[in-house]
Specification:
mainly alpha
Length: about 110
């Protein structure tokens, strides 16, 4: 069983969720930890258009391995964690281990 946080509540998700859904949930979680990071800002950091990023977050199109890798590098988490192969609590992002500070540095 995997878990994610929504509005401070721990939500259980089944293992049958597809990869795209899990990646979207984990990206939302990372953006929540790094608020006020917007989808537009993250899209620019990843080198994609805001509309393409929005389509991926709405599950219209699927994440590529290159995009998953770029997100993992940006937030300093493992690709396995991002794809839900590791429990949310087992490989927590750095910010969670450091009193919820910002994970990424804006230049």
């Amino acid at each position: 069983m995997f878990y994610y946080w929504r509005m401070g509540a721990k939500i259980a998700i089944s293992e049958e969720l597809d990869l795209n859904e899990v990646v979207c949930q984990r990206v939302n979680y990372l953006m929540f930890l790094n608020r006020p990071l917007s989808q537009r800002e993250l899209a620019m950091m990843l080198g994609m258009s805001a509309s393409k990023f929005n389509q991926k977050m709405k599950r219209v199109s699927r994440w590529s391995l290159e995009e998953i890798s770029a997100i993992a590098d940006t937030f300093e988490v493992s690709a396995d964690w991002l794809m839900g192969r590791v429990a949310l609590e087992a490989d927590a992002p750095i910010a969670q281990r450091q009193s919820y500070g910002l994970l990424i540095r804006r230049s």
